[in-house]
Amino acid sequence: MKLILATSNKDKVREIKKILDDKINIFSPGDLNIDSFEVVEDGKTLKENAYKKAKAIYDITNLPTLADDTGLFVKSLDFRPGVYSHRYANENPTYKENRDKLLSELKDKDNRQAYFMTVLCFIDSRGKDYYFEGRINGEISHREHGDKDFGYDQIFRVNSKTFGEMKEEEKNSYSHRAKALDKFKNFIKNNYESISS
């Protein structure tokens, strides 16, 4: 099976490739010489944004496409940054700028409960869309921990460690993205031949 990932984020591509089964041939837009892939993520939900990204690549390639939209939801911030997690600090922030803004907003907050949510949109070879969700609860640390510089990983703590402190194998065994991708893998294993015929 040939699958296009609707993202230009190299860290996300690497993580998804590690989690998905080796039997799936995964390509990024750059692999297909689609160098200017950018979608305005103005949906009000993760599901809407995931669909927009998947549909944009599917319309170009007509190949099975998978898109991921992920948000960090912090309870004491009225569940911000949520759908705006990727561009929280400004229109084109670094990972650290997003983390710094979040930590600043939480400096006087006692409740640091949060959760990560991932929604995947898969568009098959016939153009039909399917969705898969993954969620993990945790909390926001008071400062950065670990050397894995991907998104909010250095400040999102689960079971006494931030994702930034974990080895990739540990994070990928139960993260929000791993949970969603596990559902997707099971779907492909059980259904793909029938839905792609």
From TrEMBL:
* Positions that bind Mg(2+): 69
Query: Which positions does UniProt annotate for substrate binding?
Result: 7-12, 70, 150-153, 171, 176-177
Active site: residue positions = 69 (proton acceptor)
What binding details are noted for the cofactor? Binds 1 Mg(2+) ion per subunit.
Q: Offer one Pfam family short name for this entry.
A: Ham1p_like
| EC numbers on record | 3.6.1.66
GO cellular component, alphabetical, reads: cytosol
For this protein, the record's InterPro entries field holds: dITP/XTP_pyrophosphatase, ITPase-like_fam, RdgB/HAM1
Out of the domains of life, which is the source?
A: Bacteria
- Subunit structure as annotated in this protein's UniProt entry: Homodimer.
Q: Which PANTHER family is this protein grouped with? A: INOSINE TRIPHOSPHATE PYROPHOSPHATASE, INOSINE TRIPHOSPHATE PYROPHOSPHATASE/HAM1 PROTEIN
Mind telling me what this protein is named? dITP/XTP pyrophosphatase
- Please name the source species: Anaerococcus porci
